[in-house]
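Tutorial, part two.
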Amino acid sequence: MFWFLLLAMLVVVGSVTLAVIGSADGTGRTVRGGLTDPEPDRPPVVLPQDRPLGRADVAELRLPLALRGYRMDEVDDVLDRLGAELAERDARIVELEAALAGSQAAARGDAKLLGGPVEPDTGEHGGPAR
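Running the prediction step on this input gives:
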């Protein structure tokens, strides 16, 4: 009985080994070329590429979940883009505020040179400056 079980086990192990080594598709031919590329199993992160991001784009953003939370590379990409756009907007705001301050100073200077009425400096709270 022992020899019969040993022989049966050798036959099963041998046939499985030949099946795995010989052909991966069950036709008896050797498969060449390897595995095919996997299909994506999650939706892509969709952000508009042709315009700056808006509040609605960020509110509608849904990142796909991975085994333990969110996929770090996708979150990093989104945060990098948001950071770059915020830095660009901050720089533009500073530039516009400087241009506005310059034009206001020029307007005050022109009014003083022409002898026209000069508006009093109202300070931060709208009242007269102290």
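The longest helix spans residues 72-114. In part three we will examine how such features are distributed along the chain.
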